[in-house]
Each structure stands twice: as C-alpha cells, then as structure tokens.
C-alpha cells in the first residue's frame, strides 16, 4: 500500500561544509505527512553534536485509515552517526504493518557494510543512506535504511531548489533558500500521492 522507499531516514552529506550548510538552525525538522491530501502521520528529525560529526535521530509514524478503521500502520526509528562530515554508521528499526525490519550499517576502510536479516551487503565506499534533507547525497550511491539494499535510482536537479529521483522510486524533494529540506512529493505504488510539508 505504501512504497517503503519513500519512508526513509535522513542523513548528511560526505563533506563537512555541506553538512553544516544543510543542517536546520533549529536542530530539528518536523513534517506533516499526507496521502492524497489527507494527513496520515509525521516525520521528525533531530540533530545533536558538532555539525561535522552529528548524530541524527529520525522518528516516523503513519497510520492509513479506511473510514475510522486503521488499515496500515508504519513506525520507523533511525539513528545515524557521522564523523568529520562523513557517514560513519546507522541503526534502524521498522514496523511496517506488523512486519519488523532491522538494519545496521557501518563505514569501513573498504566500503560500507550493511547488515540485514537477509544477510550482509558490501556497499561501495561512497554509499550512504538515502536521504531527502541534504541534496548532496544525490551525487553518490544510495542504500535504503529500512531494508538495507542498494537502490537503483538516478537523481537530477530540475530547478534551483528541487531534485527529482527516478527509478525504483518517483520522488521530488524541495529545499528552501538556506538549502534546508522543506517538502517532498512522491507517487506510491497504488498511484496515490504522498507529500511531506514542513511545519
């Protein structure tokens, strides 16, 4: 019902200056999540530590209802660690309508090692979690923080403050004048539209 590729944790760019530039001044980002214009949940991000070596915590909660009856529940928790502006590690837990998933990733000298319930994935050195809030990540290979798999997507800048991601996902991300993530719009597998609106 919900394309899980759209429901992902946030991250940072690989360069210290870029990471500092994209971090919100409030150290928090809060979004209302809508499906076909109806509110279904929220996406919260908090940033702690030095801007070049922060810890980023993400909490996502969504419930889709058919009338008054919940038909889909989604919970996602992620903690990312960065060191000197580079991705260092990630742990996520997800409950997608009763299906539990857990991912652990860490940077090594040879690349990024991603552990999932299905086994180990050895990602390239430039791999980082698929993030929306910092557009600099679009220049490198991405992996899904929920499932751990490397994604087959391409990203291109289509406006001064907009990036389009296509392939396994169809997403447009938007940024404000300071380069901070401000909105998302994506098409789900059932044809419905998912939107994030910053509050």
Question: Topology, please?
Answer:
Blueprint: H1 16-22, E1 28-35, E2 38-50, E3 53-66, E4 69-83, E5 86-96, E6 99-108, E7 111-116, E8 119-123, E9 128-129, E10 142-143, E11 153-159, E12 162-167, E13 171-175, E14 181-187, E15 193-198
Distance between the termini: 25 Å
Helical amount among residues, as a percent range?
Answer: under 10%
Structural class of the secondary elements? Answer: mainly beta
**What is the strand content?**
over 45%
Report the total helices.
Answer: 1
What is the H/E order?
A: HEEEEEEEEEEEEEEE
Biggest β-sheet description: 13 strands, antiparallel
Cα-atom radius of gyration: 16 Å
Total strand segments: 15
Strand order of the largest sheet: 8-7-6-5-4-3-2-1-15-14-13-12-11
Q: Count the domains.
A: 1
- Low-confidence spans: pLDDT under 50, at least 5 residues? 1-21
Question: Looking at the structure, what is the overall shape?
Answer: globular
Overall pLDDT metric:
86
Summarize the structure.
The chain has one helix at residues 16-22, and strands at residues 28-35, 38-50, 53-66, 69-83, 86-96, 99-108, 111-116, 119-123, 128-129, 142-143, 153-159, 162-167, 171-175, 181-187, 193-198.
């Amino acid at each position: 019902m919900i394309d899980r590729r759209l429901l992902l944790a946030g991250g940072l760019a690989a360069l210290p200056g870029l990471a500092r530039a994209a971090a919100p001044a409030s150290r928090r980002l809060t979004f209302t999540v809508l499906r076909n214009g109806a509110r279904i949940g929220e996406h919260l991000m908090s940033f702690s530590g030095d801007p070049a070596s922060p810890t980023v915590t993400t909490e996502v909660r969504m419930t889709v209802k058919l009338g008054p009856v919940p038909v889909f529940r989604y919970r996602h928790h992620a903690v990312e660690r960065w060191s000197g502006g580079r991705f260092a590690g990630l742990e996520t837990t997800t409950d997608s309508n009763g299906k539990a998933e857990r991912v652990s990733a860490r940077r090594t000298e040879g690349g990024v090692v991603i552990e999932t319930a299905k086994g180990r994935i050895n990602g390239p050195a430039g791999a980082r979690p698929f993030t929306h809030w910092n557009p600099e990540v679009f220049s490198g290979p991405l992996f899904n923080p929920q499932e751990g798999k490397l994604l087959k997507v391409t990203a291109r800048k289509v406006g001064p403050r907009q990036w389009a991601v296509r392939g396994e996902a169809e997403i447009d991300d938007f940024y404000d004048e300071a380069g901070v993530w401000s909105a998302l719009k994506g098409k789900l597998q059932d044809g419905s539209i998912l939107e994030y609106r910053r509050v």
